[in-house]
Structure prediction request, 274 residues.
Amino acid sequence: MSAGRLSGKTALVTGTAQGVGRALALKLAAEGANVFANDLDAEGLEGLEAEVAQAGGSCTGFPGDITGEDFGDRAVEACVSHFGDLDIVVNNAGYIWNSRIVNHTDEQWYAMMDVHATAPFRLLRAAGRHFREQDKAGRTDATRKVVNVSSISGLFGADTQFSYSAAKSALFGMTRSLAKDWGRYNVTVNCVAFGFIETRLTQAFEGEIPAIEVKGQKHRVGIPAAAVEIMKNQTPLGRIGTPADAAGAVFLFCLPESDFITGEIVVASGGLRN
Prediction:
């Protein structure tokens, strides 16, 4: 693999075994980055590592649950130990557990907060300590990058995604606060809010509702096929986004060309706004 625009950089990305995270990991590796890839799915990570290696890239899997209290510290320590540094952090991992608020349980609320808000907080705290140490050592010549992955549900709300929307909204405050705090370390912090991206969480279905299993518990996912067609018609670009589309939006904030952009929330939705 020839040297790319991110040659020599190390990127820690969560949720990379499939979908958007996998597409992003492949894109980062293709541009020369060392990818430290996390997911609950250890087998999926092995497949990702093999695919990157076959293409001549660099990827090391780090299976584990991002909601673990010590995950952030362990992930950053392992990444720096393996690759020597940390240049890019992408908070991508997550899932949905939908229902209207009258049917919401405390467990459901905390599960969405844990995976979409608390886990990113802990990972960013650990990464921030590394950035601070690098600053003290005088290593501020290259701009480091943080990209948080949110959703238009966090911006505009969604009637059956009460806790998911609340947690995704929290990422906007984190992003803007850290952009102000970490500028002194030459770190940019931005956020991408996805619209309707075609993944296992948004798969179209007719009849039986599909489900995914997360930590031994099944959660309904997917969108009725008729509703998918409505959303297509409401999207100015007239189509559903692909994982590659979503990964491309995140990738923009990983490039040197975005070194003077920080604290921004960018919507990648094909123009869909609600």
Notes: The chain has one domain: 10-196+242-268.
